[in-house]
């Protein structure tokens, strides 16, 4: 009988210890989730804190349609004691939702530790990989943060975000769009079973080279025509932009058969 009482008491003590440990661990629901996109495409920020007055952190994203953020935490020692000063890390994971650039504001607040505010540029590429760039005081004070234009293509209710090439032709194309109030509508027709082609309202500088196109290439032809390729073709012309991660089937579904009206416009970061 005595041994049974001892065993029951030991079991009760173990339950109390486990309860205390669980109560003081960071909520498992707050742990960083598994990447919803392929490995390497997310970006993260980690900060240190501690029980008993360590900094609490918050992050806000100015354009949540471009990127999302999730928060998680973990103690330095999973078996730490319930005492002030137990250290843990706070991690914020950024996931790209659509190509573009926005800003994340990070604040740290503590009654006994240093407070700070930081601002990061959040850049999401065509493949939805995320890059974070910490903005310095010089950046913030010099007005270096300027609105940025993103090229957008709309056709039959579908919206794409082509990435412009780094050449004078693409720069001129974006400048012309801005002059036109930010958008232009073009009429394109099928040609060769590999492209939709139509005239531009203006001529652009050429940077012709021999190119084999892939689905999603947006090409300047002879300086005054634009083509959207949904299949391969090799010729001398200038690439203006490229729609990333799109298949021939997806483009054909969006472009449809025969003539089609497409709209290019600029979307600005605030």
Question: Which characteristics define this entry?
Answer:
18% helix; alpha+beta; 10-stranded antiparallel β-sheet; 2 domains; Immunoglobulin-like; Cyclophilin; 43% strand; 270 residues
In brief, what are we looking at here?
This protein is of the alpha+beta class. The protein has four helices and 17 strands.
Can you characterise this structure?
By secondary structure, the chain is of the alpha+beta class. It has two domains: 115 residues, Immunoglobulin-like (Sandwich), CATH 2.60.40; 120 residues, Cyclophilin (Beta Barrel). 18% of the residues lie in helices and 43% in strands. It has four helices and 17 strands. The strands form three sheets. Strands 8, 9, 10, 11, 12, 13, 14, 15, 16 and 17 form a ten-stranded antiparallel β-sheet that branches. Strand 6 and strand 7 form a beta hairpin. The longest helix is centred in the first third of the chain and has 23 residues. It is elongated. 19% of the residues are buried.
Largest sheet: 10 strands, antiparallel
> Which structural class do you get from the secondary structure elements?
alpha+beta
Q: Distance between termini?
A: 75 Å
Fraction of residues in helix:
10-25%
Average pLDDT metric: 81
């Amino acid at each position: 009988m005595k041994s049974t009482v001892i065993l029951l008491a030991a079991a009760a003590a173990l339950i109390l210890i486990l309860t205390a440990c669980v109560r003081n661990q960071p909520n498992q629901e707050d742990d960083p989730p598994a990447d919803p996109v392929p490995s390497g495409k997310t970006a993260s920020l980690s900060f240190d804190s501690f029980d008993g007055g360590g900094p609490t952190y918050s992050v806000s994203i100015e354009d949540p349609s471009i990127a999302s953020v999730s928060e998680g935490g973990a103690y330095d020692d999973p078996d730490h004691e319930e005492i002030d000063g137990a250290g843990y890390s706070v991690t914020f994971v950024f996931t790209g939702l659509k190509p573009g650039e926005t800003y994340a504001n990070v604040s740290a607040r503590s009654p006994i530790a240093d407070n700070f505010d930081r601002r990061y540029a959040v850049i999401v590429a065509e493949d939805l990989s995320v890059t974070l760039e910490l903005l310095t005081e010089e950046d913030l004070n010099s007005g270096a943060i300027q609105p940025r234009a993103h090229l957008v293509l709309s056709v039959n209710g579908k919206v794409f975000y082509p990435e412009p090439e780094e050449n004078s032709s693409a720069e001129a194309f974006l400048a012309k769009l801005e002059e036109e109030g930010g958008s232009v509508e073009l009429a394109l027709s099928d040609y060769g079973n590999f492209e939709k082609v139509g005239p531009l309202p203006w001529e652009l500088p050429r940077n012709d080279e021999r190119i084999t196109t892939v689905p999603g290439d947006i090409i300047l032809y002879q300086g005054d025509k634009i083509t959207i390729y949904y299949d391969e073709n090799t010729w001398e012309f200038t690439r203006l932009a490229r729609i990333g991660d799109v298949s021939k089937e997806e483009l054909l579904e969006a472009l449809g058969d025969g003539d089609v009206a497409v709209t290019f416009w600029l979307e600005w970061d605030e």
